[in-house]
Specification:
Elements: H1 3-6, H2 12-22, E1 33-35, E2 51-54, H3 63-70, E3 86-91, E4 100-103, H4 113-119, E5 124-129, H5 133-139, E6 151-156, H6 173-184, E7 191-196, H7 198-203, H8 208-232, E8 235-239, E9 264-270, E10 280-281, E11 284-286, H9 290-297, E12 312-314, E13 325-330, H10 343-346, H11 350-358, E14 361-365, H12 381-390, H13 397-407, H14 414-426, E15 430-435, H15 445-457, E16 463-469, H16 478-493, E17 497-503, H17 504-507, H18 514-526, E18 530-532
Parallel strand pairs: 1-18, 2-3, 2-15, 3-4, 5-6, 5-7, 7-13, 8-13, 11-14, 15-16, 16-17
Antiparallel strand pairs: 1-17, 8-9, 9-14, 10-12
Helix pairs in contact: 2-16, 3-18, 5-12, 6-8, 15-16
Length: 533
């Protein structure tokens, strides 16, 4: 049967997305698609003085696009002068941005691991490759850019000369391990926190062979690090921030490129003592227990803000000298008993297997309520690193917003009312920009619907929707289905029109790939992209 006939019941926009799938494109990197009117002019572009609500919630990947749209002195690529957008962000992406914030920070997260170590006069070194720099830095420090006295950072560049990490699943893990090795010998640092990024990053790519190579590369570097810790007498703590590839398939057999609800490992290998296996740990815990455990190892008092508990049930007889600790985060390394569709189990991981078999260990909850998220939801890198550093459960912005919707305060939010009433008063367009997904860590279609409802209630016209789609945690080709749902929302409410669709790859960058951001900017402002009438 002709595939165009299969598409006959879809809207023109959805038909165009599905044709892009047929041509080999995926949601994540879908080229911008722009609606045009009968005369061929792009519909719903960002015009001077318009009002925009960027309803994404995570923040760090939203900064660059927002900068290009609101900062007067933006220099990374040519932008339209005097656009003067009236901009609202769902949460604070960056305090320097010229935007109103619908749900501002509730206050500083005090006494994170980094701050406690600093107050105690203990030096801290953080090592990561650039793909995970913000997680080991910003999120582990309580969603703060502050670098505390005594805290230093080494950022190894992630590979740049590849179009996909599937072509280089090793990423920069060996360089990260080299930095760990050289700094274990440095007496200046009492604590080192390091991240091996491969499993999480490759887990978002639908390439099983590349994922297996990524897992095995992490295991190879883990073996090297273990031997360095053994030689140097270092206390090694190994854990993860969330699971990914240990549950590679959905129940229907399609590939799951998202995160999981499974627990993550915690291993304590104390090479500073002769009786390395004599520790006694709790069998289960959660990510918020890691920071209190590290403080106990360092003989530091846990601050009252940390509600997490040490996983240590007993200390073996202490050796003389100060303990030096390496916290190694195997990003995305989840634990799942079932072997079927478990790429952690399928890969060759002798070093992790040996560590898990011979040293004190525990399973840590890394999803749902244990990391401040709704029950039965998957974990993510933001929540994982936040809780590893904070040592307490912290409600994420998603939960705050969901509760505001349930209790009705969402519809009285000053920032939303300012944007919508301002658009109506000034006879300007209202633009709703953000991810369309059931449950992305960057946002949800469930937050778009109440915004459309509020626009309907306030009789705001016109309202244009600009949808970002992406595969992570979603089934293949789900972007078209979500766009269709948004179009149905608009029809049922008789408000709004979807005028832009693009893969999140272009709009949600955090590595200063300004060519990607420029592509998103040109679609939103100038209407550059694939045109659909």
């Amino acid at each position: 049967m002709d595939k165009d006939i299969d598409l006959a019941g879809d809207s023109p926009l959805v038909r165009r997305i599905k044709k892009a799938y047929q041509a080999g494109q995926e949601d994540e990197t879908l080229d911008p698609i722009v609606m045009i009117d009968t005369s061929g002019e792009p519909l719903g572009r960002f015009e001077r003085g318009d009002y925009v609500i960027f309803y994404d919630i995570r923040g760090e990947r939203e900064i660059e696009l927002t900068e290009s749209l609101v900062n007067e002195n933006f220099k990374h690529f040519p932008v339209k002068k005097d656009l003067n957008l009236n901009f609202v962000t769902m949460i604070e992406y960056d305090s320097s941005l010229n935007a109103r914030i619908a749900f501002p920070p509730e206050g500083k997260i005090k006494n994170t691991l980094a701050e406690v170590l600093s107050e105690a006069g203990m030096s801290l070194l953080k090592i990561s490759e650039s793909e995970k720099e913000i997680h080991v830095g910003f999120f582990m420090n309580g969603k703060s850019d502050e670098i505390f006295p005594g805290e230093e950072r080494i950022v190894v560049p992630s590979p740049e000369a590849v179009t996909s990490y599937s072509l280089k699943p090793e990423m920069s893990a060996s360089q990260v391990a080299e930095e760990i090795s050289s700094n274990l010998k440095n007496p200046s640092y009492r604590v080192i926190v390091a991240n091996l990024a491969n499993v999480d990053v490759l887990g978002h790519i639908e390439d099983k062979a590349a994922v297996l190579k990524a897992v095995e590369e992490v295991d190879r570097q883990l073996g090297r690090i273990v031997e360095d810790c053994r030689t140097q007498g270092i206390t090694l703590v190994v854990t993860s921030d969330h699971g990914t590839v240990e549950e590679w398939l959905y129940s229907n057999g399609t590939i799951n490129t998202g995160h999981t609800k499974n627990p993550v490992p915690f291993v304590l290998a104390d090479f500073s003592a002769e009786a390395q296996q004599s520790w006694n740990l709790k069998k289960e815990g959660e990510l918020a227990d890691v920071a209190p455990t590290l403080l106990a190892l360092l003989e530091l008092q846990k601050p009252p803000e940390m509600s997490g508990e040490s996983l240590i049930l007993n200390f073996p007889e202490e050796e003389e000298g100060e303990r030096k600790i390496l916290l190694l985060i195997l990003d995305g390394w989840g634990m799942r008993e079932e072997k079927e569709a478990n790429l952690i189990a399928e890969a060759d991981t002798p070093n992790f297997d040996r560590l898990w078999a011979h040293f004190p260990r525990a399973f840590l909850k890394a999803s749902g309520e244990a990391v401040g998220m709704p029950a039965n939801t998957v974990g993510n890198s933001e929540a994982g690193h936040l809780h590893l550093g904070a040592g307490r459960r912290i409600l994420l912005d998603r939960v705050r917003i969901d509760r505001a919707i349930e209790e009705g305060s969402f519809f009285r939010n000053d920032a939303f009312l300012w944007a919508m009433q301002g658009a109506k008063k000034d006879h300007k367009s209202l633009h709703l920009l953000g991810i369309v997904s059931k449950y992305s860590s960057h946002g949800t279609i469930k937050h778009l619907l109440p915004l459309l409802r509020l626009a309907k209630q306030l009789d705001v016209k016109p309202v244009f929707v600009h949808s970002l789609i992406g595969r992570r945690g979603e089934k293949p080709e789900s972007g078209a289905a979500y766009v269709a749902k948004v179009e149905e929302m608009c029809r049922s409410l008789a408000v709004g029109q979807v005028v832009t669709v693009m893969g999140r790859f272009w709009a949600l960058d955090r590595e200063e790939n300004w060519d990607r951001v420029e592509k998103a900017y040109k679609a939103l402002v100038y209407g550059e992209g694939i045109h659909v009438s």
